Amino acid sequence: QTCALPISTRGRNSIARPSVGKKCVLVDFDGVILKNHVKFSCVKHNIEQLMFDYNIKESNEVLYEIYGHSFLGLKQHVYGFTLDDFNDYVYSSSFLNYIYSMAPNKEEKRNLEVIYPLLKSYDDTGYDVILFSNAPASWVDANICRDEYMKLSFLIDSVIEVKEEQDLKPLKSCFDKTNEILNTKGYDDIVFL
Question: Per residue in 159-178, pLDDT tens?
Fold first, then answer.
């Protein structure tokens, strides 16, 4: 189960943790948990196809560099374009089935060998592990609901899935709202990976 802001529980409950003075590590999914240039290229291809369909001349890289997220750039060119429109196209169910069918490549496996011990060390020292992603839950699930990720998934206490376009990373409001929510939940030591 995932959530928009605020946090919901996913992998396990952190009931054993104290209710105040809690510590958490916010972990970005794409590029931190998941490192697989082939999968990222597939996402990029879908975004570029979407841009072609709307006759947008700028490249995805240009939009991403200017706006910090491809959707935010597309929205400037397409009246009424929503985050749901973007996610439904880029992360279609047939695409996610294809991604799920892909075995993790060497790059992805090497990253898991690095990220698991790092997150385990945070968990062992009392930090809640909170996954933090702009990508929809369906993308995260298509990648993390695999045997290779099983032991890592048990470290994840909660997930923050950004569902509102005005709250997308890297917009300041995303970090402000997340910080406010985490402070309300008793977190006063927050690390961002």
Answer: 888 888 888 888 888 888 88
